[in-house]
Amino acid sequence: MAKVLIIGAGGVGNVVAHKCAQLPKVFTDIVLASRTESKCRDIAKNVKAATKRVIKTDRVDADNVKEVIALIKKHKPELVLNIALPYQDLPIMDACLAMGVDYLDTANYEPPTKAKFEYKWQWAYQSKYKSKGIMALLGSGFDPGVTNVFCAYALKHYFDEINYVDILDCNAGDHGHAFATNFNPEINIREITQKGKYWENGKWIEIPPMSVNFHFDYPEIGPKNSFLLYHEELESLAKNLPGLKRIRFWMTFGENYLTHLRVMQNIGITRIDPVEFEGKKIVPIQFLKALLPDPGSLGKNYKGKTNIGCLIKGKKNGVSKVWYIYNVCDHAECYKETKAQAISYTTGVPAMIGAKMILENKWRGKGVFNMEQFDPDPFMDDLNKYGLPWKAVEIKNYNKIMPL
Ligand code: NDP
């Protein structure tokens, strides 16, 4: 059906390449390009061993619009999947715009010099993409991504209006390292050291980092301490869910992780501003990334499961209802299939499905879109088919399980 260009050969790029290769009728040609081509070649080798498909590889510095344009001219894809870092979102969007090619990513833009992610930079492309007749699908990972689609599905099938959403992200896995992040360390640490923020009655409320927490009893996992964080899907869902009164995001962290984080912050190694070191400027968090385990290498010994879901309260026929829609994913199962851990897997599968939605014209439009703006049904069907089966349970004891 179509040729796609995947940019980024990290933990998530590996899963996207595997999952696209598993569907030869949809993804007839696949090119994987990244800053370090040898990483693309390693992934291509694994994909060939797993699926017998040959994928092409190339090199690109995606911070450079001209290089991305040249890459698109060379390979002529119908869709570019940006699986590099959020810093590359705008240059890749610019290149797609120049070449009239559809665009997809999994994380919203943030400027390298400020730990602040926001949709305003990418939403600003709305009229340019519209007049060019192309589309951008933003945030097609798990959270953002699947969590947005869970909300859209709940609104379509379980509620007349949604009033309260709590997105709950639990990783109860153990990778055997004293400290490691499950996706790019720089992006991950910038995200969780920011102030917490949630949306209530039309206003954003900020709280000190990691200052609000409670134990949520995650199905198939058990109770885990969950901390209120700001996460990017809150911004688009607050805008796109009619009737919403409050939306928050929670993530689990163990004591060991939090202690390491506190020490790293205290000694300054999570700083994002350049410092002088032996006559050279280095950015401490980038140096830290070089020391930490590569998230793509964590899969081998990872045990345990993730549970990510949306706890949603609203009304149906005037009656108050609560549903929890969630997916449970097993690290070891993911490794067996793609040599990746569950965080890369739960991001890479929805990126493939988002691409499939666009190429099959199930999700189609002109402009810039978030996931909840399309019909959730075909996407939810594909989650069940391609590795991320979900469950929806009606909750009767809401006040007990959500005390805050
Ligand atoms: P990794 O750090 O493992 O991989 C990033 C890849 O991008 C690397 O191969 C890197 O190349 C490449 N890259 C970086 N800069 C450039 C550049 N200038 N030009 C070309 N390639 C570049 O990250 P992950 O795979 O863990 O994460 C990928 C993305 O997925 C991130 O944006 C992350 O925020 C997002 N994500 C989204 C989630 C969701 O649920 N929505 C969850 C988890 C992650 P090199 O190897 O040479 O450094």
Portion of residues within helices = 25-40%
Number of beta strands: 18
CATH superfamily of the largest domain: Dihydrodipicolinate Reductase, domain 2
Q: Could you name the CATH topology of the largest domain?
A: Dihydrodipicolinate Reductase, domain 2
Q: Structural class of the secondary elements?
A: alpha/beta
Morphology call: globular
> Mind summarizing the main beta sheet?
9 strands, mixed
**Share in β-strands:** 25-35%
- What is the CATH class name of the largest domain? Alpha Beta
Ligands bound, unique: NADPH dihydro-nicotinamide-adenine-dinucleotide phosphate
The parts where pLDDT drops under 50 for at least 5 residues are none
What count of structural domains? 2
CATH architecture of the largest domain: 2-Layer Sandwich
Mean pLDDT over all positions? 96
**What's the tally of helices?**
15
Over the alpha carbons, how many angstroms does the gyration radius reach?
A: 20 Å
Distance between the termini: 48 Å
Provide a compact summary of the structure.
The protein is α/β, with parallel strands linked by helices. It has helices at residues 11-21, 37-51, 65-75, 89-99, 120-123, 126-132, 146-157, 185-193, 233-240, 255-267, 284-291, 331-338, 342-359, 376-385, 398-401, and strands at residues 2-7, 27-34, 56-59, 79-82, 102-105, 135-138, 161-171, 196-200, 203-207, 213-218, 222-229, 246-252, 275-277, 280-282, 305-316, 319-330, 367-370, 390-394.
Map the helices and strands.
Blueprint (H helix, E strand, L loop, with lengths): L1 E6 L3 H11 L5 E8 L2 H15 L4 E4 L5 H11 L3 E4 L6 H11 L2 E4 L14 H4 L2 H7 L2 E4 L7 H12 L3 E11 L13 H9 L2 E5 L2 E5 L5 E6 L3 E8 L3 H8 L5 E7 L2 H13 L7 E3 L2 E3 L1 H8 L13 E12 L2 E12 H8 L3 H18 L7 E4 L5 H10 L4 E5 L3 H4 L3
Parallel strand pairs: 1-2, 1-4, 2-3, 4-5, 5-6, 6-17, 7-12
Antiparallel strand pairs: 7-15, 8-9, 8-12, 10-11, 11-12, 13-14, 15-16, 16-18
Helix pairs in contact: 1-2, 1-13, 3-4, 7-14, 13-14
Bound molecules: NADPH dihydro-nicotinamide-adenine-dinucleotide phosphate.
